[in-house]
Each structure stands twice: as C-alpha cells, then as structure tokens.
Amino acid sequence: MRTLFALWAAPLLLFWGWFFLSLNDINFGYVMLSRQLHDLVFQLYGQMLGVDPALIPGMVAKACVFDGLLLMAFWAFRRRKAIGGWITTMRNRYFDQASTPSA
Fold first, then answer.
1. How confident is the model at residue 97 (pLDDT cuts 50, 70, 90)?
2. Helix (DSSP H) and strand (DSSP E) numbers for the chain
3. CA-to-CA distance for 87 and 74, rounded, in angstroms?
4. Per-residue confidence band for 29, with pLDDT thresholds at 50, 70 and 90
5. What DSSP string runs through 4-50?
6. Do residues 34 and 25 make contact, with C-beta atoms less than 8 angstroms apart?
7. Contact 83, 76 (CB under 8 A)
8. Cα–Cα–Cα angle for 21, 22, 25, rounded to 5 degrees
9. For residue 45, which of 55, 34, 31 has the smallest C-alpha distance?
C-alpha cells in the first residue's frame, strides 16, 4: 500500500509544485518554471480539450480529490477488519450501557 500511495502522490507533488511555482513566476532562472511557459502549457491544454485554460487547474484538482477518495476507499476496504475492531472498541468505551447512571 505504501508503494501505491507513493506512486499516486509523487506525480501530484511534482505537478502542483510546478503549478504554484510557475503561477507565481518563482523560476530560479529555469525556463520550465516561468510564467510564460505556464501560460503556454495551459493554453495548449485548453485548445486540445476545447475548454477555457483557466478551468483546467480546477478540473485537475477535482480529479486529484476523486482519485484520493478512491485510494482511501481501497485502503479502508483492505483494512476493514482492523477499522471495524477500532470502531467497536471506541463504541464500547464511550457508549457502554453499564456505565450510564440511572435516575
């Protein structure tokens, strides 16, 4: 599972790191991080997809959230016995019927 999380998170970290550095034109002397390349890349993607380039970061963010939810659901399904045991323990600890005071 760690490998799957790493393979999922590494491209996201690279993309969003590049996105915010190039959006704010923090380029450290590299053309790859310049605002001009940022605008060109999103203009090209916008033309290929037929959408406004300003909508693309939101679309990518929605896809990242959806992928993250799928990955968390897959992780929870694999650990359902441990999670169920934890829920039972917490329910017994906080909602134990024997420890409630009677009137």
1. low
2. 4, 0
3. 18
4. confident
5. HHHHHHHHHHHHHHHHHHHHTT--TT-GGGSHHHHHHHHHHHHHHHT
6. yes
7. yes
8. 90
9. 55
